[in-house]
Amino acid sequence: MKIIRHSIAALMLLLLIPTAQASGPSYALQVDGLACPFCAYGIEKKLSSIEGVDDTQVNIKTGEVIVIMAEGAPLAEDLARKKVKDAGFTLRAFSRRSK
Fold this sequence. Notes:
The protein is an alpha+beta fold.
């Protein structure tokens, strides 16, 4: 029984490690034209091709795209604008989010 408890505790610690790591800056992009999951996939694919992008989160209803960068990797607005345009959408607003 003691071995099972220790195994569960070790597993829980392993699951917590990724959330404890520092993440880089994140940006909020307001994008016009997002209408469906296929649109979300297309813009995620283009933005994820930028060096240093760790994650993208798309909210189709609000048109907001959150881009999370690696530690020390900023996202330039002109590059974000180009990738959004290449995906077939319009970048309406760009801002860095506070942590």
